[in-house]
Structure formats: C-alpha cells, structure tokens
Amino acid sequence: MHGGTIDLLFERALDAVIGMDLAGRVIAWNASAEDTFGWSKDEAMGQFLSELIIPQSLREAHQVGLKKYLDTGEGPVLNTRINISAVHRDGHEFPIELSIIPVPGDQGTVFYGFLRSLQEQEHYRRQIGRRASEAEMLLGLSEQMMSAESADSMARYALRKVCEATGWPVGHLYVGDDPADPQRLLPSQVWYTASPKFDRVISHSATFVFERGEGLPGRAWAEDDVVVIADINSDGHFLRAEGFKELGLVSGFAFPVREAGRVVAIMEFFSEQPPSDATDLETFARTISGHVSVALERKNAAQRREILSRELAHRVGNSLAVLASIFRRCYRISETKEELRDRFEPRLMAIGNVHNLLTGDKVRSLTLKDLLDDALNLIPEAEKIRLSGPDLVVRNAAASALALVLHELTTNSLKHGAAQTDGAEIVVHWSLVGMDRLRFEWLESSKHNGGSTDHKGYGSVVIEAMISSSLRGSYTSELTEDGYRFAAELPASHFDLASSHS
Questions:
Q1: pLDDT digit string (tens) for 309-319?
Q2: Which domains does the chain have, with CATH numbers?
Q3: Phi, psi (deg, nearest 5) at residue 296
Q4: pLDDT above 70 for 355
C-alpha cells in the first residue's frame, strides 16, 4: 500500500488518530482528532499530549506508564481497548474508548492512539436511566397517592426519589404563603438529606423567605421553569451561599410545583458537585415537575375532600344538639308560635347556608364580616354580639377554613357558652398587626357550662387543622374567670382591604 494511500486513510479515519513520540509530544493529529478535541493540527503538533487531552487527574499515571515502557518495553494500556476520560479544549471532560499500539521505527518507537468519543453513548445511557427513574417515580407517586398520610409525606417521598435519581444529596420544598395567590415563598419542614452532615442546611434556610424572582426558589417561580445554578458561590442571586458553602454544597436546581395551573410551591435540590450535563438535568426536572405537580394536586384535593367529608359527618352528628339549643333559646324568648317560627326558621336556614359554603371547592368572594354573620346568625339574640374590625375581603383559598373555625366557635358557644346564657355577650375583634399579620379575638363574658377547651373533641381537631395547616397561623384557647377567650394570628396574605379589592 502506497504511502499516499496510508496518509489518506489516516486523515479520513472516522476515529481520532493521534501519534506520540517517546518524549510524549504529538507527531500526528488527524481531522477527527480536531473535531473531537477542539485543537487544530497546527496547534497540536509538537505539544505534549498530556497538556492537550489528558485530564489533570490522569496525567501522573500517563507519565508513569510512559516511563515504564522506556524501562521495560511494556505498558499497561498498550495493545488493548479501554474506556477512559479525556478533556476537550474548552475544559469539559468526556468518556472515550482508547487503544494504543507501539510502532518501532528507525528513529525509535512511536505510539499511535485510536480514540472514539463515547459522549453520545453515555448520553443515551443517561437518558435510559432517566426514563427508568421517571417511570419508577411515576409508579411510586401513584402508590403514594393511595398510601401517603398527607401531601407533605408525598412531597417528602418525591424529594427523596429525585435525590436518588440525580445523586444530589439535599432536597427541600418551599411553599407559597397563599395557595390561591401566593405572594411569597416560605421554607417548610419538608426536607430530604442523604446524610446527617447536611442537616444544618435546614436551620440555615429556616429564616429565608423569597419573593418572586428572588433567590433560587423565587427565580424558578418567576420563570415558571427549571433553574440550574452550576456554582452557587459565584452566583450573586443565591442568597444562602455562605451557609451552604460550609457544608460543601456548590450546585443547585429548582423546579415549580403547580396546582390548577398556578405555581404553589418550589422544589429545590443541592449537590457537592456541578451537574455533569445541565441540559439533561433540566429535561429530567421538567418531566418530574409535571408528575409531582399532578400527584400533589390530587393528594391535596383528596385531603380537602376527606376533611370536608369528616366535617360533614361531624355536623350531621352535631346538628340535633345545635338545633335543640337554638330552639330552646328561641322558645324561651318567644311569646307566640308565629314569633317562635320567625326566630327559629332563619337560624335553621343559616345552618344550611354554612353547609353550602363549606362543601364546595370554590367559594365566592366574602368579607370577614360576611363569614361572621353567616356563623353568628345561628345565635337568636343579636344584641349579644359586638363586632369590630377593618373591612377585609377573605381570599377564596382561606374562606372555607375560616368559616369552619367560626362555625365551631359559634356551635361551642351555643352548647356551652354565652349564646345560651342570659345576660352574656360575645365580642369579636380583629385588626392588622404590621403588614403581615391579622390578630383575631373571640371573647365570651360568661363561664362555659360543661364545655371543654382542652381540644379533645372533633371540633377542636377541625380548628387545629384549619388554623395551623390550612391557614398557617397560630391560636390559643382558654377559659378565664370572666368567660372564654379565643385568640388567633393569621398571615395577612389571606386578606385584602375591601377598598382595594373593589
């Protein structure tokens, strides 16, 4: 075979072909090598091969192998095919298949390497792995919808599965302050950490609240898409970098969780290593974002239905006692059958109105006073009741929960408190505290007759669930020397001033 033919085969070979002398310098570099590694032939010729394509971590082994050949005539990677990492001109590492043959010559032995990039195969391998992880997660989420005790436990499961699929050790759920119309993202207690050494990240994030576009969660919210930060230490928008750096966490990504088309939460994840393929990670995260959103939306809806169903069952069992109490009060203060009818029938209708309000997912726009009127209308003597506070519209997502709380307070008063005691009164006052809290007080001026404030009944379970979980507030309930006091603090984001809402 003529030398020209060999040169043509060498130049047109589909694999990268590289020649190296005993000093480790490049003596041959074909067109495929240019495409594979980014260095032109003119740039590569005469350079040390170790400085062009061998990763820093493998250069010492390269020098040891070359020295061993010079000393013994043998080398650990000669005349065999191995998979190893190489480095591109732009600095990124990628897998290659490599075979090296020594060729004796008049000027001494030279080496020819035949190199084939495995990036495409590695990409397909990762894609297959991602698809398997997606399928496993989808199946797991379906099972969790049936077995998980709450949406939080399902979210915790999703965090763990994403961390396991990506190899990222930390995951966290940021939640909107109002599911219907979030204004801020709040840290939750829903975390996954692969090792106790990362647990300090939980306390570090506990004080960080983000608005739209702020921090990693806020950016994912604003863009309604996956956001990947390869280096959180150099990203000026990542506000928690100092604490995360102490734990060795250098990279992060986040994706939105949607309900009814709205972003209601953000899942964020962190790693000690930068992502090997950010594009692949984004594709995976977008797919998982959709699966998690659907699963959590269905679980939340199921939880709401379960609470409403249990509440309905509770009310059916409680209705006779409530109606009997209302009837006794109406009968006591009525002088004729007509007057009794006029007093009792509106209260009977009021119970139906509250039931209608609470048994639908969609609630009409109501003010706080509307909800109080609906609940307190059960009490026959309007003169017992004094209301005071600013005119506030209750956002739809909070209306059902508030109505449940007010109805429980009214029912308790009818059975045990001021509503069934002559000369007693109910004072309800609410006010805004700063820009972010609403304070609500319910005061009864008579001692409760056989009632309980230690929250052993189902009504107290409803109040606890509505205020702590649904409304993300806090409350106290106590018997006093003068009667009964209930006080709650709720996020002001559940309300709008009536003037600004119109």
A1: 776 666 565 55
A2: 3-117 (3.30.450.20), 122-301 (3.30.450.40), 334-501 (3.30.565.10)
A3: -70, -35
A4: no
